[in-house]
Amino acid sequence: MKVLLVGFKLSVGIEPYLNIIAKNLQAKRIEIKLCIEKRVADKCKDGYGIGLGGNSVQMLKDTLNVLNYFNYAKLLIHEKPTVVFFVSSHPLNSIAILITRIFGSRATIVSQIHDPLPHSGTSYGIFILISQILQCWISDKIIVAGKKLKENIKKYYLCSENKIHVMPLGTFREERSNSEEHTEEKIYIPTLGRIEDYKGIDVFLKSAGIILHMMKDKGINYKFLIAGSGDLQKYSNLIEKIPPKYLEIKNYIISDEEFDDILKKSYVCVLPYKDGTQSGTTAISYYNACPVIVSNVGSLPEYVQSGETGYVVEPNNPEQLAEKITLLLENNNLQKKLAIQSYSYYKENFRWSNITKTLVSVFKE
């Protein structure tokens, strides 16, 4: 088997996703080649650079650049892959698939769809949706990160259930055999990652205000944390209502090391999304033995065992969110129990050595 991994645009989340898939396929002695944006290809010995990635305008230019078609066809003819796996969304994907049908006719074409329904507020969301629908129609197999997303593909893309496969989104971390859940004193209640409207920063801040009132004079050491790059200006009024000693803000791209350090010091990680599909933060939280509280949107609830690894709350409900956070703040034994079970869930479900077995079986079907 020879796999060509294709990513014409590698965002902050997609680049480590492609890298860890490549690493784990190679660990199974599967030959891989990369067809990726030139910025990243220049740093990879197995990488062929096609396209410049970038913003929506650059993506459109890459899609209309006929030279990219010729370069991709040359790559297919030279490498002769048995599987072509498109790991991210891009309008150039559908053209590349048609080229694959001509110049790599024996190759199995697999497409990963991360967000079947684009997030609210996504620029050019309707064009992304149409592009992904076309891509799915002409692919042999489709991979999504949860059962709910599979249902979305069936319902809105009108694709056969048999071609859609569910594969969890694992951690972008080195595997380890033991957790460190008891070694750090807990202080944080964080929401982590890029600042976007759909992620419910306002819901998080409103619940913080409720908790401060509920926990007054109880002597428990805790601090709310917002960590990630993006514009927080629209939340300034809510931020000002939280006393500075109870709120910390890290408004920049958080490194993997700092991300893990925060989670090790957290009672629970909060994903108060208003809408969405899936998130890698759940797996990373479990990797660090940190329970999660997620909104009941997309496939987020599928990877939370309520009362075992965390809790599921309704979206846009700061009162319910505050109730669950307070439950863990006030009950140290419950928090430790959920921490231990979260790490156990990671070991069983989110290790890439296991996830890669699923991926290879999809390739071979």
Topology:
Blueprint: E1 2-7, H1 14-27, E2 31-36, H2 38-41, E3 47-49, H3 56-64, H4 66-79, E4 83-86, H5 92-103, E5 108-112, H6 125-137, E6 141-144, H7 147-157, E7 164-166, E8 188-192, H8 201-214, E9 223-227, H9 236-240, E10 247-250, H10 256-264, E11 269-271, H11 281-287, E12 292-295, E13 310-313, H12 318-330, H13 332-349, H14 352-364
Number of strand elements: 13
Number of alpha- plus pi-helical segments: 14
**Helix and strand pattern:** EHEHEHHEHEHEHEEHEHEHEHEEHHH
Structural class: alpha/beta
- Rg over CA atoms, rounded to whole Å, is 21 Å
Unreliable stretches (pLDDT < 50, length at least 5) are: none
Say what the CATH topology of the largest domain is: Rossmann fold
Give the amount of beta strand, in percent. 15-25%
Name of the CATH first level of the largest domain: Alpha Beta
Strand order of the largest sheet: 3-2-1-4-5-6-7
The gross shape turns out to be elongated
Instruction: Give the N-to-C terminal Cα separation.
Output: 12 Å
Helix content: 40-55%
The CATH architecture name of the largest domain reads 3-Layer(aba) Sandwich
Write out the CATH superfamily name of the largest domain.
Glycogen Phosphorylase B
| Arithmetic mean of pLDDT | 92
GO molecular function: glycosyltransferase activity
InterPro entries: Glyco_trans_1, Glyco_trans_4-like_N
Protein name: Glycosyl transferase group 1
Keywords: Transferase
